[in-house]
Amino acid sequence: MAAALFLAVAPYAYGNTNCGTLDKQARQSGTLILGAESGRIAVGKGRAQFYSAPSKGCKEAGIFVVPGNTLNAYVEHGGFTSVMFINPKNNSEATGWVESIRLKETGYGIAPSQ
Fold it and tell me: What class, spelled out in words, does domain 2-105 have in CATH?
């Protein structure tokens, strides 16, 4: 019975996701991260994939960070964190959502403590 439930939910969760709507809703209803606490470092093994919304159905092909990269976090929602990464080699920016489990707080942020 559990397998049947999973199969019924899986197409909605991955195949028919409206990423733009989900992104907007998550930014409005997610948990805001204070600027003084926004620093994150990528952890785990291999590439940490970027998504355009907090869903594995919203993968951003070719956009990822690797362990040790530092990011700024803005919102947490549903096991994902909205982040910005600035590539130190060429100053290019990437924004999106990364699975929260792939991030560790650094104790720093982009704003002073209040």
Answer: mainly beta
